[in-house]
Fold these 4 entries.
Entry 1:
Amino acid sequence: MADRSKIPVPVPTPETEHFWAGAKSGRLKLQRCSDCGEVYFPPRPFCPSCISRHVEVFDASGKGTLYSYVINHRPHPAHDGPYSIAVVALEEGPRMMTNIVNVEQTPEALVLDMPVEVVFEPLTDEISLPYFQPAGASQ
Ligand code: ZN
C-alpha cells in the first residue's frame, strides 16, 4: 500500500457497524441465518436466502481460498505498481471482494484455489480494512 490516505474511508452504518468493530479488533465478522443456516456477506439485517430477520453475527475463521482475481496494471494512488483485485471464497461459504497482499502481484504467485487468510490493515483510528494474504505468510 503506497499511500493509505488515498483510500476512501468506509463509513459504518447501523447494518455494518458490527463488521467494522470486528475488523478494528482483528476479527472477521459474518452473519448467519438462525432459520435456514445461510451464512452471508456483506452485512444486512435479513437473510438473503429466506428473508428471515432472525440473524446472528459470529466470528469467521478468516480462512479461505483464492477464487478469482485480476491484476490491475493501471496506476492507482493507493498502490505501488500492479495490484490484485480478488474474490476470496471464505471457509464459511460467502465470497468477499478484496486485495491479496504480502505476496508478489503476479500470476505465478497468485494461484487459484490457494489457501489465504485475512489480515487487517488499519486505515484510520476507527476503520481497519480486511485484506488476504497467502496462508502462513509472515506479516
Ligand atoms: Zn435464512
Entry 2:
Amino acid sequence: MNAIILIVEDEARLAEILEDYLRREGFRTERAKDGGRALELWRAANPDLILLDIMLPVLDGLEVARRVRSESEVPIIMLTARDDEVDKLVGLGLGADDYVVKPYSPREVVARVKAVLRRSRGHLLGAEVYRAGGLEIDLGAFEARCDGQLLDLTTSELRLLGLLAKEPNRVRQRAELLAVTGDAESFADERTVDAHIKNIRRKLGDCGERIETVRGVGYKLRDSG
Ligand code: CA
C-alpha cells in the first residue's frame, strides 16, 4: 500500500538524506547510484515515482528518463544541478512531472513527491473523502482538515486517521492501525500507534477529541456529538 520511491542519485550522502526523509513520511524506497541500476530497479521494484538525478555514471538521467518514458507513465521528478537547466529540460520534452534544482531542501523534495503522487493518483483512484463532524479526511489528496483548516499530518498519520474515519464508531485494534501506517516492517510495535495517536490528537486541535481510546482494545473515531 505504501508508495515506493526510486531514488536515483550517485552522491551517497544526498541519497541517504532523501531516503531518510521519505521513510519518515511512510514511503518505501529503493536506491540506484547509476543509470543502469536505475533501469534494473525500475523494472524490478515497479516504483510509484522516480526521483532522478541528471548527472549520473553509466547512463545519465536524461537517457534514463527517455527509456522509462518509452514504456511507462510512472511519475518522474528530475533533480537538476542548475536553475537554467530546467528550461532546457522542459524543451527536451522528456515528460518529467516536476523539476527540483540543487541544492534543495529534503523537505521540499518530499512535498513535491506528495504533490506529484496526489496528481497522478487523483486521476487513477478518484477521491476518497471521509467526514466526521468538522473533521474531513481526503485520502485521494492526502489531506485532512479540521473546521476547514488544513492540518499538517504525516503520511502515516493520515493513513491511520483514514482507517478510523472510514467506519466511524468502529473500534480498531492497535495491530490493524499499525499495519496501515506502514511502520510495521521496521522496529515499530503497538506503542508506536499510541505515539501516532497522541501526535494526531495534538495536531487535530478541537477535532482531536473525536478520537476515543477504547481501553485494552484500541481506538475509534466518534462521528457525532
Ligand atoms: Ca549526480
Entry 3:
Amino acid sequence: MSIIIKKGDEIAAMRVAGRLASEVLDYIAPLVVPGVTTGELDQLCHLYMTEVQGTIPAPLHYAPPGYPPYPKSICTSVNQQICHGIPGERALKDGDIVNIDITVIKDGFHGDTSRTFLVGNPSIAARRLTEVTYECMWLGIEQVRPGATVGDIGAVIQRHALANGYSVVREYCGHGIGRSFHEDPQILHYGTPGTGVRLLPGMIFTIEPMINAGRRHVRQLGDGWTIVTRDRSLSAQWEHTVLVTETGHDVLTVSANSPPCPDLAAASA
Ligand code: MF3
Ligand code: CO
Ligand code: CO
C-alpha cells in the first residue's frame, strides 16, 4: 500500500481536472429530464469533454482486472442501480433518480465527481434518500484534516445513514486519485473513529458514499459492470474529490453550479 502525496504543480493540475469534471455535471444538469435516454446523456457529455474541454473521459475502455472494458464515457445509475450503470437506450421517466458519474483526465490528472439528479418530481422517499446521501458525503468531507483517519470519515457517514434508516454499500468505496484513476488509500464509507490510515497534507482522494433505502447487499448485472441493490430498493450516491491541506481540506471538484455544503455538515466542521 503506497499513498502518493501530491505537491505544488500536481495539486494545481488536480484542481483543474476537478473543476472540469464538475463543469461537465453543470453542463448536463438541465438536460436530465423525462424522456432523455442515458445514452443521449453519455453522447452529450462525451462531446463536451472531448470537443469543448479537451479532456479525456476516463471511463471509456477502462478495464481494471476482472472487468470487461467499460464501453461508455460516463456512468448513469438509475433508481435501484447503485453505481457503474452503463448508458444506453433507457429513457428517464418522471420520478426517477439518476446518478451521473464523471471522471475526466486533463494533462494526465484525474478529476472524479458525481451527483444524483431528480428527474421530474420523484417521491418524497426518493428525494429524502438523495438528500441524506448528500449530507453523508459532506459529513465525511468535513472530517478531512491532517491527523484524522479514514475511519473518522467512514464512521460519520455510516452513523448518518443508519440514523435515517438506510444502509451503506460496502463493496465499493472512495479512492486515492491522481495520475491514476484509482490509487491507495481506499476510503470506506463505514468504520470506526480513530482507525485506519492517518491523513496527511497532499493526499487526494474521493468520498463517494452509496446509500441504499433498503438493505446494503449488492448484485452485479450480466453486463459485468452495473451494480444494483439485491432487494431492489433505491440507491443514491454523491462524489467529490478532496485534497488534504495543512489545516483541513479543499474540495477540488467544484464549479459554478456545484450544490453548496448543507447546513448540517457545515455545523459539524
Ligand atoms: N467514477 C467511478 C468512481 O467513482 C468509477 C467508474 S469506473 C467505470 O470510482 F469504468 F465504470 F467508469
Ligand atoms: Co471515484
Ligand atoms: Co466517480
Entry 4:
Amino acid sequence: MVRPVRDGAAWQGWRAQTVCAAEEFFAREDLDRTPWNAVFDFGSEVVGRLELSLAPDGFPWDAPLRVEAKFAESLYELRRACDATPDGGLSRAWLQDFVVVVDGPVTRVRFPRRAAFRYVRLRVWGMVRARWRLAGLFCVTETSAPPPPAAIRGGENALDAEIASVSVRTLLWCMQDVFEDGPKRDRRLWLGDLRLQALSAYSLWRGTAGFSAAAALVRRCLLLFASAARDEDGAVPGCLYPRDPDPPEAGNFLFDYQALFGDVLLDYLDATGDASTARDLFPAALRQTRLALAEIDPATGLFRDSGKHWLFLDWKDGLDKTCGEHGVVVYSALRTRELALRLGFHRETSDLPARMAKLRRAARAAWRDPANGYFVSGPDLQVSWASQIWAVLSGICPARQAPSLLRRTLTDRVIVGTGGPYLCNQMLLALMRFGMAREALSLVRSFWGGMVERGATTFWEVFDPQDPFRSPYGNPAMNSGCHAWSVPVWFPRKGRCLGRRR
Ligand code: RAM
C-alpha cells in the first residue's frame, strides 16, 4: 500500500511512499467504517482484470458492496482527475476509472474490463456494521504471448538487464487478441506498431518453443490488414479493430504505414519461411507500393504532399515530412521488389529497380546539402532525424556515407530530433543495417535506459527527457505507458541482440 507524495525531483512530480505491506492491510477487520480508501502498487505494470477476495466473518450483508477503482500506469495519471480539462483530442473514456456494485453475499469481485496499470486506488462502500476483511487483491493477467524464454540475460550491466526485462514485459502485455499498440490505449492493431513488434517477437522467441505461436499472431495481423483493404483502391488501413468472425472495423489510413506493408511481410517471410502466406498477401503488398508511387511527382521524381494523406513518420512537432516520406516510398518499393524476387514475381515488379534508382538520384540532387552532406526537407531546408534516417534506409544516401551521416545525426544537438520511441526505433534499424552496434547500444542505454532510470517498468509511448508532461494528446494521462512501438527493436542480450538479423 502506498501514498503518492509530491516530489519536485521525481519524474512528473510524484513518488510513492510505502504505507504498509499489503498483507498488513489484508489483516484489518475494521473496514466497515465506510468508505475506505487505499492505493495499491503492483510493483510493475500488469494487464488484466482486478479481483478482490473478501473474507466475511459471520453474516455481514446489510448493504450492497460498491467498489470504485481507478487504475493508472503512473502516479501522475493516478493523481490527475479523470474529468480534468483539457482532455486533449482523445476520449475521456480511455481513462480507467470503473465502478462495480455487487448485491448479496460474495467472496469475490472481479472487474469486467481489462485494465493496464501499476497502481490502483480503491474506494469501497458497504457491508456496514459487519466484520470483514479484504483478504486479497489480484490482477488476473491476460496476454496471448507464449511464455518467454526462461533466461533472458541482458547485456553487460544492471541497466542492460533491466532494459531487457522491461522490453520483454512491454512486448508481452501488448500481445492480446492481436498485437495491440497499447493495452491501455488504443487497444487495437496499428500497422506501424506491428512492424516493430513483429521484429522483436521473432528475435525473442527464435529457436524456442514459443516461436510458432508468436509468428502465428503476426500472420493473423497481416491477414486482418489485407482483409480490411479499402474497396475503392486496395489501400490497407493504418489501424483496425478485429471483429471475429466478421471482417475487422478499419480506418486511419496512414500513408507511411501502408507503404510499409510489404516490408512487414518480407520480415515475416524471412523469420518463418512461410512462402504460402507471403504469396497470398503479395498482391496486397504490391498494391501499397503502387499507391505510394502515385504520390511521386512525375515532373520532378520527388514525393509531394497532395494533402490527401495522413503523413506520420513521427510525433515530432514541426517536422517537415517531404524528404522522409520520399525515403519511405523508395525503401518500401525496394523491399517489395526483394519480396517479389523471393516469391518468383519478377515480371510484376521488373520496373522497380530502374525507377528507384531514378528516385534516389532525384532526391540526392534536390535535397543533399553538398556543404555538410545532410538531407534537407521542405521550403526551410529543415534538417531532421527523420530525413537522415529514411535517406539512409532507402539508399538515397550512398552506403559508404551512411555511417558517418548517422553518427553526426546522433550527436548533432541543432537538428530537429525525435518525437519519441517510434523514430528512435527507426534509427536503431538504420544503425543495425550498417552494423553500428556500438552506436545502437549507446542509443539504447541513453534513451531507453533513461526511461528505466525514471522508473519505467514498461516502455512509454512518449518519452522526452526534457519534458515529463509531453503529450501529443494535450493530456499526459492519455499517453500510453506500455507501448508496442517503444520496445527497442535491438537491445543487448547475452550472446545475441533482439532485432532484425543483418
Ligand atoms: C497512436 C497510436 C499508435 C500509433 C498511431 C499513429 O495514437 O497509439 O501507436 O501507431 O498513433
